[in-house]
Specification:
12 helices; about 85% helix; mainly alpha; about 270 residues
Length: about 270
């Protein structure tokens, strides 16, 4: 093995080991590796890159410090630079420049992509449980309970991303935050029209006195209809993919079996000619 390849492999193993150790550390211990100036610069860079918002959408705001994400981005960029340095000579022509510059940039953006993917998965799970939660809120409102009491009940007995978000809302309400402010924070953490409609229904009921149970029931029905439509559209998109697999995999394999049988018995088939 060539010395540069060995050095790159050793560097990659060291980076992976360092990342594992840093991931196992508590946030305070990780931040103690940097002085106040470095922490401030890392925090400013994280704000510019939108990392706190991504962590919040992914449900990791209280578990993963922004410093850890920045360190992982920088470590991935270094690893990508090493990989680009090794792969660039094998690329043809000017494509080597693109490989050498593109791999570090792609590795630097990889943690952001993983956070966004986790945020999308978490949002889908949250929206899947939202109609049932709206039904519970509607039943509680019809019996005279406040939305805050309904949130507390769902947060206490539920599980999943929606229950986690409602626990934050309940904690903010217990600390004296007004309900509109707590719902505004929920909308920022989970963007989309679904929770915005919930917040608008509660605010409309609070200011105008309109029945909240009917609004929540209609909203739950609308969300279930949208989810059913999304499932039907996904099933409709799956049919062409299945046909493509049949056309590109199954049909050629059957033709290869027939061709193999013909070749194996070619002497008997051509005996009369």
């Amino acid at each position: 093995m060539a010395p540069p390849v060995m050095l790159a492999a050793c560097a990659g193993l060291l980076l992976l080991a360092a990342g594992r150790e840093l991931a196992a550390w508590r946030p305070g211990r990780l931040e103690s590796l940097f002085d106040s100036g470095a922490r401030r610069r890392l925090a400013e860079a994280a704000l510019e890159l939108g990392i706190p918002a991504r962590l919040s959408r992914a449900g990791l705001g209280s578990r993963v410090p922004t410093v850890a994400v920045m360190v992982s981005k920088l470590g991935a960029a270094v690893l990508g630079a090493i990989a680009g340095w090794l792969a660039a000579p094998a690329a043809p022509g000017r494509l080597s420049i693109l490989v050498a510059a593109g791999l570090p940039a792609a590795c630097f953006l990889a943690p952001d992509a993983l956070l966004e993917r986790r945020a999308r998965t978490r949002r889908r799970a949250l929206l899947a449980s939202l109609p049932d939660a709206l039904d519970l809120l509607a039943v509680g409102s019809a019996s005279g309970r406040s939305p805050a009491a309904g949130f507390a009940e769902i947060a206490r007995s539920g599980h999943g991303p929606l229950a986690d978000e409602l626990r934050i809302v309940v904690a903010e309400l217990d600390c004296g935050e007004p309900l509109p402010t707590a719902l505004g924070g929920l909308r920022e953490r989970v963007p989309g029209g679904e929770l915005a409609s919930l917040a608008a229904s509660i605010e409309r009921s609070r200011t105008l006195g309109s029945p909240l149970a009917d609004q929540l029931g209609r909203l739950a029905t609308s969300l279930r209809r949208d989810q059913r439509r999304a499932v039907e559209e996904s099933a409709a998109r799956a049919a062409p993919k299945i046909q493509l697999v049949v056309a590109l995999v199954l049909v050629p394999s059957v033709l290869l079996m027939i061709a193999a049988a013909l070749i194996a018995n070619a002497d008997a088939l051509l005996a009369g000619f």
